[in-house]
Structures are given as C-alpha cells and as structure tokens.
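User: I'm curious whether this sequence folds into something compact or stays loose and floppy. Could you predict its structure so I can see for myself?
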Amino acid sequence: MTPLRPHGPDSGVSAVGNQPGMIDSVVRGGAAGAAGTTVLNAVTYADMAVRGRPSSRAPAEVAEKIAQDTGHPVAGAGETRDNRLSGLGALSGIAVGCGMGVAVSLMRQAGLRMPWWLGGVVTGGLAMAATDLPMARLGVSDPRTWSAKDWVSDVIPHVVYGLVTYGIVTASDHRT
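Assistant: Here's the prediction. I'll summarize afterward.
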C-alpha cells in the first residue's frame, strides 16, 4: 500500500496522482547534477593521473575575468589570491553542474523526454556549452585552437556527466 502524500502548491507534488511537482523536479535535478558533477570530476582527475597533465587554469581565469568585469576583483595577492580563484573556479563548475541538472529535470517535467542515452549526450553537450562558451567569450580559451587531445579531455567527462545526470533524472520513471 502506497502511503498518501500531501498535494497542493506547497507540497512539491501535483494534485494529479503521485506525479512529481516542480519542487520534486528541482530537488531531483540538483541531486542528479551533483552526482554528475562528482563523476565528471572523477573522470577528469583520473585523466590527470594517467596522463600526468596539470589541472586546467581556465575555471579560475573565468572566475577572475567575471570578478573584474563586474567590478568585484578577487582580494589578495600571490598564492592566496590564486587559491581563491581556484576555489571560485571549482565552485562555478559545481554550480553549473547542479544548475544544469535542475534545468534538465524541469525540461523533462515540462514534457521534453528523450531516450536515456540521447538525453545524456544532450545534457553533457549543454553542460559543456555552459562552461566552454563563457571561456571563449571572455577570451580565456579558444576552442577552435584545441587539439584532438584537448577535445577528448573535455568531451568525455561531459558526456559521462550527462549520462549520469540524465539517468538519475529519469530514474523515477522506472519506480513501481
């Protein structure tokens, strides 16, 4: 027997059966995006460990440009300032990952439904665009000049992110 769940505008559950409401979609999307971001980071760090490559400075440089452009330069000097920028860059990646999960979950709730594999690839592509386009627009990096290795080290983690994120968003479809 399924327990009764409250419904209404503040419950996160629609009045029609047990269909998830907007709050459920936001929470599910945020959690899915957080899980996807964790996996993206794991794939990226594994690549760094295997190839011996350094971490990208691009997220920190984007954070620095945005801070400067908005009139709020990051305080400090030297290593302290670099560490702050590194932290802000990482936090911005987490925000993009969680936010993209929420956006995809809300789009799915609104009726945009794709097979898991396609939704995952699209979600990964959207997340990649959400990070790469600001880098290009701010002059931090020019994807047109990237090597094949550069593209692979950007595409693979984002596709894995998308598959995990979209998979979690759609997991509730399969509940009994």
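Summary: Residues 147 and 153 are 10 Å apart (CA to CA). The chain has a mean pLDDT of 89.
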